[in-house]
Amino acid sequence: MGTTALIATGGLLAAGLIVSTLESYHWLAVEYRVKIADLPEAFDGFSILHLSDLHGRVGVFSWAPFQQWLATADLVAVTGDLYSPTRPRRPLAQRLDALSAPYGAYYVSGNHDYHQNRLAVEPWQPGARLLDNRVVPIQKNGETLLLAGLPDLVRGSPNWNQVLGVLRASSHRAVLLSHRPDAWLLPGIERVSLILAGHTHGGQVVLPGLGVLVRHTRIPEPYVAGRLESPGRPVLITSRGLGTSELPIRWGARPEVVRVVLETVDSRGT
Predict the structure, then answer these.
(1) pLDDT digits (tens, 9 = 90+) for 9-44
(2) Phi, psi of 86 (to 5 degrees)
(3) What angle do CA 74, 148, 121 make, to 5 degrees?
(4) Which CATH architecture has domain 3-265?
């Protein structure tokens, strides 16, 4: 390769690196409206602010669209992977502590939230906000929606049978928080109406003509993020998340803040 070609190639690589690095800090605000059969009327219009895969990044907390959605959210869901080994923990811990909504802020663990086989999210103390292997009733105007959570399906100690037993003992509609979208494949998952997940980063790098290089899910291709619906299964919404792996590059998979608005529909679909 001649000198001119080398310079041109180097210039393209440098430009690509700049663009992809900038993309890591240009968030999207993505809203999904999800119809749930026989959802109680009290929860019609109920909004969930969904954050995932922050990996130590705190810039989005100052972003005006994020602040507007947080101010109007009924509930906040954080689906794992809080920190990065190359970023200080305390700034994010402080912002997580400040997250609040009228019906609570809940968190389930991701694979990067573990160290030596234990949950290690210090200095943040999630306390009752930790939803791993739990089901909590969200009550509004005398009506109930169940919110369930699973720890990371690989690094954590998920007890799906326990969670499913609680859900099956109730007639209320349920939303599940899971770091990995693969919860959609669990037996009995039809008991859940909606799953909110992360982990995949939307592939993080999506190349023209080649698509996603690494999918990080066992759900059949081409799904890697966004909305997925299939008869007999819950609606799945997988966020591309807000951070990156240790290589701070995104290409074709911009980070996003997600808002999910629940809408009631009777079992006849009206």
Answers:
(1) 233 333 344 444 445 568 999 999 999 999 999 999
(2) -100, 5
(3) 85
(4) 4-Layer Sandwich (3.60)
Note whether 153 and 179 are within 8 A (CB): yes
Q: Dump strand ranges (E) for 62-168.
A: 75-78, 105-107, 114-115, 118-119, 134-140, 143-150
3 state DSSP class of 202: helix
Q: Which helix (H) or strand (E) holds 69?
A: helix 64-72
Distances (CA, A) of 246 to 19, 98, 129: 17, 26, 27
Q: What is the DSSP letter of 48?
A: E
Closest residue by Cα to residue 99 from 149, 51, 30, 150: 51
β-pairing verdict for 134-140 and 143-150: antiparallel
Per-residue tokens: 18 = 């700049």
pLDDT, position 77: 98
